[in-house]
Amino acid sequence: MINLLTFKTKPIKQIPFQGMQAPVHRRIIYGTDSFDRMQDFEKYIFNYCPADDAKRITPYNGPVSITAGISTEDPDLGGGWLKADINTPLSTTGVRTCAVLNLVDEDTNTHTLYHVYHETDSESIKEFITTEFPHFTHVNIVGGDQYQTVYTMSRIIEAVNDVDPDVEKTFYYTVTDNPELVAYKGDMYYMKGKSGKLSFVRNTENYWY
Question: Is 202 exposed, middle or buried (0-12, 13-18, 19+ CB in 10 A)?
């Protein structure tokens, strides 16, 4: 059940495209019954991010052949996850009420991308981290374009903090509708012109709901 304390919408004057916030501005503050602390999210151009913490995602410019990387199997459903060396692009799409977790280990030059299903609880996300990728030096998180994603994101934050509360986190906001999101060399990118599509060999085995 959605338990919003506030859900306000107000227009913002026209902002140059390089600006941070979308013409439509929403702020959601949710209750402590669901989370350890209050978390403030805002609607950016095409998705949600914590207020004052968002980084604009940039176009992907790495290898683009179908065998150069790995994509989740289903473009519209969360649960798929991928792991490879840091120079292998990992991609997913269809992040609406779901959210993306990218764990990076700079010590071993490996990374994982997990398209977190919106009904996955924080304990399951924590179990995924401790089972599949327990050591990481940086975390990237990308929310979806529907407001329920803030609950998915906050469960990700809770799980990550339980494993390593001091790890640096980067939150990205997207600039196109339903982009193909790509984890590559420690950062998140998007494929230009690839709304709802996947570019690489699809992994049909790794799921974690």
Answer: middle
User: Closest Cα to residue 68, out of 205, 192, 162, 199?
Assistant: 199
Maximum alpha-carbon separation in the chain: 47
Q: What is the rounded distance in angstroms from the CA atom of residue 84 to the CA atom of residue 11? A: 42
- What backbone torsions phi and psi does residue 44 show, to the nearest 5 degrees? -95, -160
Rounded Cα distance between 5 and 32, Å, is 10
pTM of structure: 0.83
Sheet holding 138-143, edge to edge: 54-56, 168-173, 138-143, 99-105, 110-116, 81-85
Q: 2 near 29, Cβ under 8 Å?
A: no
Contact in structure between 77 and 55 (CB atoms under 8 Å): no
Give the tens place of pLDDT for each residue, 126-171.
999 999 999 999 999 999 999 999 999 999 999 999 999 999 999 9
End-to-end CA gap in the chain: 19
If you search the block for the tokens 């060999």, which residue do you land on?
A: 201
